[in-house]
């Protein structure tokens, strides 16, 4: 991999389109009243939200709901107006400004507040940088404030913004320490920066999902009449500003418990006389830095930004100086997503994806080296696991849509761990660590086991990446280098997918289930995609094998899954009258597999329309709750446009009206619109499923047909036997021996017909045509435990009389279709000295697994 280079609406408001910030290229964005508004959301530990209709009157919180004190006060003509947080609770002489609008874009939350005769715009920008791991790795966010008079007169305006020591630790009984820095020179002057941290640092550990180590960075330019103050009690400092319009520019170094007077760290700017032209824009930077970000198998791993900046000062300097570029990139991305979403499914869909974007990336952070970036995921609010495959899977559409390489960066840690030999199971693991940020693995083969679920998730996500990489050659090299691991998962699925044993799925809160229709579907599609992966990696024999297995399985699945009424599919095989969301149908469409019959999709669409509630379609017949990510996966796979719109509208209705004021929960009730569980999870990246589909990327190429003319009879000759018998032959009646002969003796025992197996591609029964009247004629192989090749009297359905024929060199490989699990599958012959015909594990290049078909 090449080294990466530097840069590459509220209930009281109208629900019509709202005016956008002057910084925006797009004139308007779809209005929405989020359950909770993202303020500074960049990573699992930089995730601060406003859980209310108004920015003022409620304290911002970490995604868990724990308070992260952050306030802003405007002093207009000597009168104090609270703009943000709830400083007025301490009777400091403020009134709350009136909020007049809120605009949500993928990267920004823009509030407009009225303080007397002055309008103030507060823009919270958390950049999303899908094209640059370097830029995306920066755990910092911007706040900008601008003022303008609304009555034609000029008014004196001062602004105070502060954060509390609650940013240093989740436990307010902990002692915080802090410092003031003025060493960072930037364009236009020097930054004044507060750094705050827990006095006792406990690296790589958490309290209430918040880190016990690292440093909070809170900074602004020393300009616009800046005064500052740090470490004093919150209510004292804010009251003094309201009275005096400035701070003392002094640091109180009395380090103490966070809850001891609630020390704050404040900036005050004097904007002077503000008229009808907008004031200077005040810019603040906030974030949390941890140079060593995670552990992997006991070793510390650096944050990715450390590759470019050796300390927080360098990081901050770059981030502040990059502001204008960051705004331009954000505006471009906002417009791209909004335009595409509106075109795909209207304003409600636009609002959904705008709210989901920062949250999706807020569960991720880059670590590692420039040559091998890892995009780590925290399973926020459910288990806190690391790199959970069945959380990456629903989140994958946003990564696929914005930059397919992001999928590879998230898959790399999982692939690395399962390639290391430390994971002992044949199937894929659930995660690489039980508790973020420690990727200790599950070297005992334990953890939360979802064998079919995770194996299928991995293969489908691998296919998504390979379908949309920045470099096809890099993708091909990656697929080839890890092919044996991918094949191991595929072989597990071949054996275990069609009738899944009692096990958990990603919806583990619903409990284990046997013969789950939706789980079986996922596994079948993963097998089908493995056929494409195999072809992409240069394994045409495997490609035909997995393609044919998937075709065979989908036909069986369609029969077993169908309700006795034949009107829809059941939750599990044989559970008549039950139904469920078949959200796993989405990869069939996205990856171009087209395995699911169109009539089946239409039946499911029709069923969903009969059970949809106010806020969407329930997950299944057992409950009224749903999963928002799966709602949009289902919408993207639907063939009925009216159903798609109804699902989109239900999800929008939920985020716009739900009384559950938490960051976008994906698990909620479709009748009441209340949270059932979970919040702030990156799985909302699944809201981008419709946009991912709209890219219309062609699927990976399917395997080349074998080009066997089934109307003809063939002599089968093997290579790698120069001077020796090389014609496939069978004995006369009395034995079922299959061996090699030196010539075509005219008996018919060296002549074979290829009879297509119905419903499968390039799969045939191979029958000898002569010299065996009344005897076995089907070319067959033994089950595992023997590599014998002989003749059988029929196709017994085991798969061992079915052979895949795939082009290889100037001839063909002939492989047993199934019935041999992970045992040798290639028809093969021995070297000279014996005429043995048996099975081998691969085409070894000797020619003895390559056969020429000559019509006779």
Describe the protein's architecture and organization.
It comes from Favolaschia claudopus. Residues 17-86 form the DUF4964 domain. Pfam families: DUF4964, DUF5127, GtaA_6_Hairpin. This is Ricin B-type lectin domain-containing protein. The protein has 856 residues and is α+β, with helices and mostly antiparallel strands. Among the domains are: 372-597, Alpha/alpha barrel (Glycosyltransferase), CATH 1.50.10; 713-855, Trefoil (Acidic Fibroblast Growth Factor, subunit A). The strands form twelve sheets. Strands 9, 10, 11, 12, 14, 15, 16, 19, 22 and 24 form a ten-stranded antiparallel β-sheet that branches. Strand 34 (727-730) and strand 35 (738-741) form a beta hairpin.
The CATH architecture name of the domain at 372-597 reads Alpha/alpha barrel
Number of strands: 44
Strand content: 25-35%
Unreliable runs = 1-23
> Overall mean pLDDT score?
95
Give the N-terminus to C-terminus distance in angstroms: 52 Å
Which word captures the global form?
elongated
Largest sheet: 10 strands, antiparallel
User: Can you count the helices?
Assistant: 16
Attribute tags:
856 residues; Trefoil (Acidic Fibroblast Growth Factor, subunit A); ten-stranded antiparallel sheet; alpha+beta; disordered N terminus; Glycosyltransferase; seven-stranded mixed sheet
Short description:
The protein has 856 residues and is an alpha+beta fold. Among the domains are: 226 residues, Glycosyltransferase (Alpha/alpha barrel); 143 residues, Trefoil (Acidic Fibroblast Growth Factor, subunit A). Helix content is 27%, strand content 26%.
């Amino acid at each position: 991999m090449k080294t990466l280079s530097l840069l590459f609406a509220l209930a009281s408001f109208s629900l019509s389109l709202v005016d956008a910030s002057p910084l925006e290229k797009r004139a308007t964005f779809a209005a929405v009243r989020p359950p909770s508004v993202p303020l500074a959301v960049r990573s699992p530990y930089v995730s601060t939200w406003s859980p209310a209709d108004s920015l003022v009157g409620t304290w911002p919180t970490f995604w868990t709901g724990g308070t992260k004190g952050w306030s802003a006060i405007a002093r207009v003509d000597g009168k104090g107006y609270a703009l943000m947080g709830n400083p007025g609770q301490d009777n400091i002489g403020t009134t709350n400004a009136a909020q007049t609008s809120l605009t949500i874009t993928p990267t920004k939350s823009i509030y407009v507040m009225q303080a007397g005769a002055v309008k103030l715009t507060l823009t919270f920008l958390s950049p999303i940088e899908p094209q640059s791991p370097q830029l995306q790795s920066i755990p910092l966010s911007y706040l900008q404030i601008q003022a303008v008079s609304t009555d034609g007169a000029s008014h004196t305006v001062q602004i105070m913004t502060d954060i509390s020591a609650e940013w240093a630790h989740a436990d307010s009984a902990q002692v915080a320490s802090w410092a003031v820095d003025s060493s960072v020179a930037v364009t236009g002057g020097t930054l004044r920066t507060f750094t705050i941290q827990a006095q006792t640092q406990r690296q790589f550990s958490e309290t209430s999902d918040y880190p016990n180590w690292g440093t909070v960075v809170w900074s602004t330019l020393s300009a616009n009449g800046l005064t500052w103050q740090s470490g004093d009690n919150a209510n004292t400092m804010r009251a003094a500003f309201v009275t005096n319009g400035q701070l003392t520019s002094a640091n109180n170094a009395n380090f103490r418990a966070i809850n001891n007077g609630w020390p704050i760290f404040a900036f005050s700017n004097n904007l002077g006389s503000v008229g009808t032209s907008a004031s200077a824009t005040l810019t603040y930077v906030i974030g949390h830095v941890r140079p060593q970000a995670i552990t992997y198998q006991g070793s510390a791993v650096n944050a990715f930004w450390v590759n470019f900046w050796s300390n927080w000062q360098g990081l901050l300097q770059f981030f502040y100086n990059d502001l204008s570029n960051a705004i331009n990139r954000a505006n471009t991305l906002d417009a791209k997503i909004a335009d595409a979403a509106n075109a795909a499914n209207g304003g409600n869909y636009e609002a959904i994806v705008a709210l989901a974007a920062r949250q999706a990336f807020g569960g991720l952070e880059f670590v590692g080296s420039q040559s091998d970036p890892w995009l780590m995921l925290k399973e926020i609010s459910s288990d806190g696991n690391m790199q959970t495959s069945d959380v990456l899977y629903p989140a994958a559409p946003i990564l696929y849509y914005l930059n397919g390489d992001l999928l590879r960066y998230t898959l790399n840690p999982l692939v690395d761990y399962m390639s290391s030999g430390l994971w002992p199971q044949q199937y894929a693991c659930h995660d690489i660590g039980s508790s973020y940020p420690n990727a200790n693995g599950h070297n005992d083969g334990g953890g939360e086991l979802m064998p079919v679920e995770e194996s299928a998730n991995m293969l489908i996500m691998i296919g998504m990446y390979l379908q949309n990489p920045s470099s096809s050659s890099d993708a091909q090299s990656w697929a080839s280098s890890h092919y044996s691991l991918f094949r191991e998962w595929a072989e597990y699925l071949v054996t275990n997918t069609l009738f899944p044993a009692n096990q958990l799925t990603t919806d583990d809160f619903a409990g284990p289930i046997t013969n789950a229709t939706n789980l079986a579907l996922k596994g079948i599609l993963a097998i089908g995609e493995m056929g494409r992966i195999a072809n992409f990696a240069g394994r045409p024999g495997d490609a035909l094998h997995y393609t044919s297995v998937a075709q065979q399985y989908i036909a069986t699945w369609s029969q077993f899954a169908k309700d006795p009424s034949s009107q829809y599919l059941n939750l599990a095989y044989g559970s008549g009258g039950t139904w469920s969301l078949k959200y796993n149908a989405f990869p069939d469409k996205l990856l171009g597999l087209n395995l699911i019959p169109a009539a089946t999709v239409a039946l499911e669409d029709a069923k969903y329309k009969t059970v949809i509630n106010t806020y969407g379609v329930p997950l299944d017949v057992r409950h009224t709750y749903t999963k928002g990510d799966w709602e949009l996966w289902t919408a993207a796979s639907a063939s009925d446009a009216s159903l798609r719109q109804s699902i989109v509208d239900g999800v929008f209705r939920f985020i716009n009206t739900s009384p559950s004021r938490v960051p976008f929960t994906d698990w909620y009730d479709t009748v009441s619109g209340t949270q059932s569980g979970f919040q702030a999870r990156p799985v909302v990246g699944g809201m981008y499923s419709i946009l991912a589909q709209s890219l219309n990327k062609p699927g990976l190429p399917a395997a080349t047909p074998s080009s066997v003319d089934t109307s003809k009879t063939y002599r089968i000759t093997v290579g790698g036997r120069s001077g020796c018998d090389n014609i496939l032959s069978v004995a006369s009646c009395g034995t079922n021996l299959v061996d090699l002969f030196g010539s075509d003796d005219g008996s018919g025992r060296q002549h074979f017909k290829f009879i297509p197996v119905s419903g499968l591609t390039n799969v045939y029964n191979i029958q000898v045509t002569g010299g065996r009247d009344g005897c076995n004629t089907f070319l067959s192989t033994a089950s595992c435990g023997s590599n014998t090749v002989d003749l059988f009297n029929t196709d017994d359905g085991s798969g061992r009389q079915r052979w895949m024929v795939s082009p290889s060199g100037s001839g063909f490989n002939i492989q047993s279709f199934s019935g041999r699990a992970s045992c040798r599958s290639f028809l093969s012959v021995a070297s000279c000295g014996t005429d043995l015909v048996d099975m081998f594990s691969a085409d070894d290049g000797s020619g003895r697994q390559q056969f020429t078909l000559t019509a006779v």
